[in-house]
Design a protein that fits this description.
- The chain is of the alpha/beta class.
- The protein folds into two domains: about 200 residues, Metal-dependent hydrolases (TIM Barrel, Alpha-Beta Barrel), CATH 3.20.20.140; about 60 residues, DNA polymerase, domain 1, CATH 1.10.150.
- It contains ten helices and nine strands.
- α1 packs parallel to α2, α4 packs across α5 and α5 packs across α6.
- Bound molecules: adenosine monophosphate, zinc ion (ZN) and fe (iii) ion (FE) (2 copies).
- The site of one fe (iii) ion has 4 residues, from loops.
- This is PHP domain-containing protein.
């Protein structure tokens, strides 16, 4: 079986595998094309690509940006990104700054709830520059306050929960344009997480994103049912978009997700689909 996985996180953001380890794991899982798509950073790309060359795996350099769509969190993936593009690096710097504003406020909320936690502990857990909510979750787990990442999000960190503080984000247009000018192919990540799932309203959202330069949609994703996949594939066709898929692997920060196995209906995606995805991303 030939597997491809176009959505993965490393320790450069909130994954638990170093970029080199991610590529080694991909090799062990039989993956032939892997995209590294850390949140708000391209710091892991070079190491992952070096290891890709060593192990004979195609590694696509990518990034995942969070944008604000009418007060909802939306994620845009960018593939084949120029990791040295000055405007991109400036934009990513700004996104880290937004984290630097939010993170201490979340610590304050947790402390007010009587939890003994410091920003330093969370930063130490993150090791890199991107300090995200999954790192807060790990610290809460280590302290025995919660027993899983899911519980940490349900009780404290998820949108609307007691310790949640919204961070400032780019607009979808700004995010897509930032990726485009860095040579990247913008793709809508995990569409299932958006509120409007009814086909017509979803199509309107896609139309708007396409007008900014969106080029693809992540139709294959572990949380998508067979029905969802069908809907997103048909929407992709309607809007002439590339169809992609990925696991959103985060290592032990998302323990149920396996690298390289984007399952739906309990089965891996058909190799014909894998082949098409490979063509669309390798031949652009
Ligand atoms: P941040 O960018 O710091 O706001 O953190 C967002 C990240 O947290 C997402 O990209 C996911 O990796 C993770 N996340 C968000 N919601 C949940 C959840 N309910 N359970 C587990 N992880 C989550
Ligand atoms: Zn993440
Ligand atoms: Fe995401
Ligand atoms: Fe992701």
């Amino acid at each position: 079986m030939d597997y491809i996985d176009l959505h993965t996180h490393s320790t450069a953001s909130d994954g638990t595998f170093r970029p080199s380890e991610l590529v080694q794991k991909a090799k062990a899982e039989g993956v032939s094309v892997l995209a590294i798509t850390d949140h708000d950073t391209v710091d892991g790309v070079e190491e992952a690509q070096t290891w890709g060359r060593l192990l004979g795996i195609e590694v696509i350099g990518g990034v995942e940006l969070s944008v604000n769509y009418n007060n909802q969190e939306m994620h845009i993936l960018g593939y084949h990104v120029d990791r040295k593009n000055p405007l991109l690096l400036e934009g990513l710097h700004k996104l880290r700054h937004y984290r630097d504003i939010r993170n201490p406020l979340m610590i304050e909320r947790l402390q007010k709830m009587g939890i003994s936690i410091t920003l330093e502990e969370v930063e130490e857990m993150a090791r890199g520059q991107i300090v995200g909510r999954p790192h807060f979750a790990q610290v809460l787990m280590r302290k025995g306050i919660v027993s899983s990442t899911a519980e940490a999000f349900e009780r404290f960190l998820g949108a609307g929960q007691a310790a949640y503080v919204k961070k400032e984000k780019l607009t979808p247009q700004e995010g897509i344009e930032l990726l485009k000018q860095a040579g990247a192919i913008p793709v809508l990540a995990h569409p299932i997480y958006l509120e409007k799932q009814e086909k017509e309203s979803f199509s309107a959202i896609l139309g708007e994103l396409v007008s900014y330069g969106l080029r693809g949609i992540e139709a294959y994703y572990p949380e998508h049912s067979a029905e969802d996949v069908k809907k997103f594939v048909s929407l992709a066709q309607e809007h002439h978009l590339l169809i992609t898929g990925g696991s959103d692997f985060h290592g032990s920060n998302k323990p149920k997700t396996r690298l390289g196995r984007i399952m739906y209906n309990g089965k891996p995606i058909p190799s014909s689909v894998t082949k098409k995805m490979k063509e669309c991303l390798l031949n652009v």
